Automatic annotation (TrEMBL), chain A:
Gene3D superfamilies: P-loop containing nucleotide triphosphate hydrolases (3.40.50.300). SMART domains: AAA (SM00382). This is ABC transporter ATP-binding protein YxdL. GO terms for molecular function: ATP binding; ATP hydrolysis activity. Signal peptide: none annotated. Its main location: membrane. It comes from Ruminiclostridium hungatei. The gene is yxdL_1.
TrEMBL record, chain B:
It comes from Ruminiclostridium hungatei. It is found in: Cell membrane. One of its GO terms (molecular function) is transmembrane transporter activity. Pfam families: BPD_transp_2 (PF02653). This is Inner membrane ABC transporter permease protein YjfF. One of its GO terms (cellular component) is plasma membrane. The keyword Transcription regulation does not apply.
């Protein structure tokens, strides 16, 4: 499925600000894995996701999706295989375009785009149907500019867009971090539902330990650019926040430092 | 007086083609593209040179279109492949085009007196010069508005619109934003060059200097169009741009009529655009946004 082989990523190399964000990181995701990824400040979680998505090239190592090496693929080329939801609700949608226009752009992910009409009439029925499952009343506002929607609505829409064409891997980068607790919960439930219904392989970064434990079948913890814990199956089901903090201390020799994780 | 207004309308229709080009980069792609100053003069230069060499004026205008497309391609490549900031890429192409345009014409200006132009067929129908320009201008503007309305509704056109809106999202949807920017710049400069070709034929000469300040005129027309004629949907916006370009020409004709020296024209235009661009800030200053805080929140 996804195979990451010893990747390195260094920001600002050769300067006083040099930061080794990923250090010889390797990771393998099985088909159907729903992995929650947790770690302290600057552990490299988002860098890992962005490296998989091709936002920037890695400095060493290789990345495979479905046994195809994508290390050198540009971001837009990899997008054919990936669905992505970002931390910033503004980032996943085009604010000045309508809901249906955004969906139509996502519906053509990985397809060639030509001079046929941007939205076909039969697509509208599909969009209306899918939007109604979100239970946000968006199905009656197909024309509305996405900029008018709330953060939670935009994240739900981005989630729908990311899964409209079934992605090989769904990348969720702290996609509920900018939402209020109630909305965050709703978007998380939606994510669970999408992943379950479409049997997706997913990698979800979160700063919330409870969420990381509650969701998914596998939990990975990162520290200083490396994977330090990889907990799955029965073991993961029995996990508690206290266990996790203890095991983090043992594996890293430090106390868990993530201001947001400790506050939530 | 009516003559002045009709003259302004005819000129406005020709500049409307250029205004739509500026709108594509400035509003849709969110790039302030200065290439247009060079490509409008290039359109004029190519058309004038070709016509005086005996080429059919419609073919000459088509050649101008090709020149403009190429100018847009250069700016697009400078910006996306060599990662030169968009503003600077445009300036570089604009400066380079000055020399290129001199080479095309072989001198600083070409007069087109007593030559057949794209307006000649209309004049043969018995129209006077202004009526001919208005007729052809209307045809051109209708074709451009129709084509662009169609194009920006297609899959490719939607992708270009989204690129100006949120490039991150567009890349995540598998679209090469660099290609979209290049296509936008090409179309924009092609339109600007056609406009230059039409303008030079209506005034019967092409001058290497004619592009100077044209970006500001284009922006002024875009802003006037948006403020006065609305931006409800894309079709409405395109029509508003045309009306904006015409209104700009009428305003200029009127202030000149009222006795403003022609030398102050560019200063006047620049000040108008500066005020129009500052309007949102000025509004905030004079009318702070009202916020209501409910009890218990």
């Amino acid at each position: 499925m996804l195979k990451v082989n010893g990747i390195y990523k260094v920001f600002y190399p050769g300067t006083v600000n040099e930061k080794i964000a990923l250090k010889n990181l390797s990771l393998e995701l099985e088909e159907g894995d729903f992995v929650t990824l947790i770690g302290g400040n600057g552990a490299g979680k988002s860098t890992l996701l962005n490296s998989v998505a091709g936002v920037y090239p890695v400095d060493k190592g290789s990345i495979f999706i479905d046994n195809t090496e994508v290390t050198k693929y540009s971001e837009h080329r990899r997008a054919a295989l990936l669905g992505r939801v970002f931390q910033d609700p503004m980032m996943g949608t085009a604010a000045n375009m309508g809901i249906e226009e955004n969906l139509a752009l996502a519906y053509r992910r990985g397809q060639s785009r030509g001079l046929s009409w941007g939205i076909k009439n039969k697509e509208r029925a599909l969009y209306r149907e899918l939007l109604s499952h979100l239970d946000l009343g968006l199905e009656n506002r197909l024309d509305a500019k996405v900029g008018l929607l709330s953060g939670g609505q935009r994240q739900a829409l981005t989630l729908l867009m990311a899964t409209l064409r079934k992605p090989r891997i769904l990348l969720l980068d702290e996609h509920t971090a900018a939402l209020d607790p109630k909305t965050a919960d709703k978007v998380l439930k939606l994510s669970d539902k999408f992943i379950e219904d479409d049997k997706l392989t997913a990698l979800m970064v979160t700063h919330n330990m409870r969420d990381a434990i509650k969701h998914g079948n596998r939990l990975i913890m990162m520290h200083e650019g490396k994977v330090i814990l990889d907990i799955k199956g029965e073991e993961k089901k029995k996990l508690t926040v206290e266990d996790l903090l203890k095991r983090f201390g043992k594996a890293s020799g430090e106390e868990f430092a993530n201001d947001r994780a400790l506050l939530s | 007086m009516l003559d002045i207004i009709l003259g302004a309308i005819s000129l406005g229709l020709l500049w409307a083609v250029m205004t739509i080009g500026v709108y594509i980069t400035y509003r849709i792609l969110d790039i302030a593209d200065l290439t247009v100053e060079g490509s409008i003069a290039m359109g004029a230069a190519i058309a004038a040179k070709a016509i005086s060499a005996g080429i059919n004026p419609f073919a000459a205008t088509a050649l101008a279109l090709v020149g403009g497309l190429a100018a847009g391609l250069i700016t697009g490549l400078l910006h996306t492949k060599l990662k030169i900031p968009a503003l600077l890429s445009g300036i570089l192409t604009m400066i380079a085009l000055y020399s290129v345009n001199l080479h095309i014409m072989g001198k600083a200006n070409i007069a087109l007196l007593r030559m057949d132009t794209v307006y000649t067929p209309f004049i043969r129908l018995g129209m006077d010069n202004t009526a001919a320009v208005i007729s052809l201008g209307l045809v051109c503007v209708s074709v451009v508005v129709g084509l662009l309305y169609w194009f920006f509704g297609t899959e490719l056109g939607s992708a270009i619109r989204a690129t100006g809106d949120n490039p991150n999202m567009v890349r995540a949807q598998g679209i090469n934003t660099n290609v979209m920017k290049i296509v936008g710049l090409i179309i924009s400069n092609g339109l600007v060059a056609v406009s230059g070709a039409l303008i030079s034929q209506s005034q019967s000469f092409a001058d290497v200097q004619m592009g100077t300040g044209s970006i500001v005129i284009g922006l002024a027309s875009v802003i006037i169009g948006e403020v006065l004629f609305g931006k409800r949907n894309f079709f409405n916006r395109l029509i508003a741009l045309v009306l904006g370009a015409i209104t700009y020409r009428i305003i200029i004709a009127l202030v000149l009529k009222l006795g403003m020296p022609a030398n102050d024209l560019k200063l006047f235009t620049a000040i108008t655009v500066a005020i129009a661009l500052a309007l949102p800030e000025l509004k905030k200053y004079f009318r702070p946004a009202k916020i209501s805080i409910k009890e218990g929140e």
